[in-house]
Amino acid sequence: MSVRTKVFFIYVLVILIFSPAVFAEDSAIPDGISIDESVDRAVVMIGDRVKFTIEIEYRRGIEISFPELNDEKVGGFEIKDSGHEVKKAPLSDAFMMKRWYYLASFSVGKRQIPQIEFKYKNTKSGSGEWKSAHTRALNITVKSSLPEGKLPADIKDVKRPLSYFEINWFIVGGLIFIIMAFAGAIFYKLRPKPAPARLPHELALEELEAIRRSFLKSSDVKEYYAGISDCIRRYIERSFNLRAPEMTTEEFLVSLGGSRALSPDQKELLKGFLNACDLVKFAKYAPQKGEMESVYQAAKKFIEETRRAADVHI
Prior knowledge:
Layout: H1 3-18, H2 20-26, E1 34-39, E2 43-45, E3 49-59, E4 62-65, E5 73-74, E6 77-88, E7 94-104, E8 109-113, E9 117-122, E10 131-134, E11 138-143, H3 169-190, H4 200-218, H5 221-240, H6 249-257, H7 264-282, H8 289-313
Parallel strand pairs: 2-11
Antiparallel strand pairs: 1-3, 3-7, 4-9, 5-6, 6-7, 8-11, 9-10
Helix pairs in contact: 4-5, 4-8, 5-7, 5-8, 6-7, 7-8
């Protein structure tokens, strides 16, 4: 047999396989239309997906109108996903329309995928009249995942809300008390702590240093001596509980004469210091630079020497 003869026989075989005449022999619908519907499983477990496929074979000149299942349900099944495609058979005028749906049922028992009606018309016949056709109904059995005749042990009835008198208020009150106590402890721990009280000698030394810085800016000698004198007076009043803001230097020294808080040397140092300040404040005495430094050092020395005695009287 020649090569040309072999090619001819192969061509005839292909035409016979894909010709509309073959479709017409297997189809119960005229006009050369063939329908095939199927499911991938006839028995499924509850909630499982089953693939439902519809295949329609038709020749050129046939127009197919397939319904859109917009309610997302087919019989007792829910449509979870779907798709479609159309393919043309090679070396012929035949076409294949394929639609598939993934269905699931959430109730057990016998379920049925009902007939699905679609329409078609022959555009070559001239009338263009729409005709109806439908798929076959398919039966599917949906089974439970539990053993037959047994109910799940972990399913319990829904409890109603508790009434006011059913609440254990003793426990609720205890929990509230514990929460409030815990919150109070955290607040007490994180609260800003007050600064420790300053001692009289600390305040006096800081004030003395501030008077000195002010004098270096203003060069006011009288204000400088008056400030140092008032600083020492306030220090003694705070340290030894002596209230004598209006006393003269002599009266102030007399009030300290009977005090045992100061030693005789400290009293003598204070006397010389206050008298030196009075000369500048009231006698218009003009001290030298060395004297101004000496009065500052004398005041500082008096504070540092009496600080321990002052701490005892606080």
